[in-house]
Amino acid sequence: MHNPPIIDVIIPAYNEEKSIPKVIGDIPALVRNIVVANNNSTDGTGKVAEAAGAKVVFEPQKGYGKACLTAMDWIKKQKVQPDIVVFLDGDYSDYPEELLDLIQPILDDKADMVIGSRALGERESGSMTFPQVFGNWLATTMMKYMQGAKFSDLGPFRAIVWSRLLDLKMIDQNFGWTIEMQIKAHKAGLRYTEVPVNYRKRIGISKVSGTVKGVFGAGYKIIYTIFKYW
């Protein structure tokens, strides 16, 4: 690992022009590249992200995982590869300044992957819907009994050693992305831990919890992914 470590941030974003400058502005200065994957937004997400200092890559195919994969492809092309990659949502529900707490177990050589757990942190009232809370509980409980993986959340705010992430050969292109990473990390024997992170109401309407279709689509994909890697 470089000294100081090289850290890149990936933010998948779809129609987040109001929130993305706030997210980028709160990311600690030690981060090298903030890579925003503009996931076929119909607003000014790409322009405002670029103006705020991010590197913007465009991914026309909608899908959380697809956006993350496109951002990873951009990082792979850089001359100097990062030590750590942090994933963060673009809706300002996470607290980007908590990135320092998130990467600390990796810097201390105690973990290869760290999940920011909203279940262990403080959640603003109304920041997570009942389907989200229940879905997280169900998914982490199933993972525990079926795979022996011990997690309390599928939180999007997470840090992982870049080389370890590449080893996982991620493929999911939508809602199964977070759980695929956690299951594969567990099965590959990566050292993982969780740190409490705080969570607030997002800016704008959620693409997942904001619609009935989104809730059922995400729920189905998460359960499907658990059985796929069983």
UniProtKB/TrEMBL annotation:
SUPFAM superfamilies: Nucleotide-diphospho-sugar transferases. The keyword Transferase applies. GO terms for molecular function: transferase activity. Transmembrane segments: none annotated. It holds the Pfam family Glycos_transf_2. The keyword Transferase applies. Residues 9-142 form the Glycosyltransferase 2-like domain. Keywords: Transferase. PANTHER family: RFBJ PROTEIN (PTHR48090:SF7), UNDECAPRENYL-PHOSPHATE 4-DEOXY-4-FORMAMIDO-L-ARABINOSE TRANSFERASE-RELATED (PTHR48090). This is Glycosyltransferase involved in cell wall bisynthesis. It comes from Algoriphagus locisalis.
